[in-house]
Amino acid sequence: MSSSKPTLAVIGGTGTLGSGLAGRWAKAGYPVVIGSRDAAKAADAARAFPGATGTSNADAAKSAEIVILTVPWATHAQIIDEIKPHTAGKLVVDTTVPLVPPKVARVQLPAETSAALAAQRRLGDGARLVAAFHNVAGHKLQQDIDIDCDVLIFGDEPKDRAIVADLAKAAGLRGVHAGPLANSVAAEALTSVLIGINRNYKVDGAGIRITGIATD
Predict the structure, then answer these.
(1) Cβ neighbours of residue 3 under 8 Å, at least 6 residues apart?
(2) Using one digit for the tens of pLDDT, what is the confidence trace for 11-39?
(3) CA dist., res. 59 & res. 10, Å (int)
(4) What is the DSSP letter of 86?
(5) Rounded mean pLDDT, 82-104
(6) 205: alpha, beta or left? (left if phi > 0; alpha if psi -120 to 50)
(7) Are 197 and 206 in contact (CB under 8 A)?
């Protein structure tokens, strides 16, 4: 494991998306800390990944340089409040989509217009927020397969978007700079559209691909 790589806290890392990302980053040599509301469950999940550890959400955020939020919309605000004291000055990557069951194939955006903007408001100016990984299927990340999907990355600072693009690449995906955080509404809404496409065409995790961009 390379000490030059930042420590990543995957909050909600026992879920499908969180565990899929955590496993790929651990395999790529990143120090990974799985966070959960149940510290014992997080520790148990971490045993599946090389060198990973598991603890509570707050302790995971405290121990990491980059915090990745992979939690359902229903618990989004509560978990942000748990980790907020440990995010000042840190890069926080929010993957949350505001899905409202049972009509998850219908776009239903919050008053703030996106989950990412709601997170930024709740965290305050101390955290550097980037939104990404909305449109990639978590169960595919859990498998040792190539995934035909780009990752749209939203953030107000290009240098922070570039860091997340490196994380996407480490997970076997291509990151695409998609503009400021306000634009995150597009990817969040698109997730519901993709869920509908999956159902209508019986697709196992439809993704997106941006054409016309040279692959590095």
Answers:
(1) none
(2) 999 999 999 999 999 999 999 999 999 99
(3) 11
(4) G
(5) 97
(6) left
(7) yes
Three-state DSSP class for residue 10? strand
Task: With beta carbons less than 8 A apart as the criterion, state whether 82 and 92 touch.
Answer: no
Strand 66-69 and strand 91-94: the pairing is parallel
What stretch of H or E contains 194?
helix 184-201
In sign, the C-alpha dihedral spanning 28, 82, 182, 107 is: positive
DSSP string, 31-72: -EEEEESSHHHHHHHHTTSTT-EEEEHHHHHHH-SEEEE---
Tell me the longest C-alpha to C-alpha distance in the chain: 46
Question: How far apart are alpha carbons 19 and 24 in whole angstroms?
Answer: 9
> Shortest CA distance to 112 belongs to which of 193, 187, 182?
182
76, 115 contact by CB (below 8 A):
yes
Q: What is the mean pLDDT of the chain?
A: 96
127-168 residue pLDDT tens? 999 999 999 999 999 999 999 999 999 999 999 999 999 999
Tokens 């049972």 map to which residue?
A: 102
Any idea what DSSP says for residue 6? P
Are the CB atoms for 80 and 127 separated by under 8 Å? no
Residue labelled with tokens 């790529």: 28
**Number of neighbouring beta carbons within 10 Å of residue 81:** 12
Question: Are the beta carbons of 33 and 7 closer than 8 angstroms?
Answer: yes
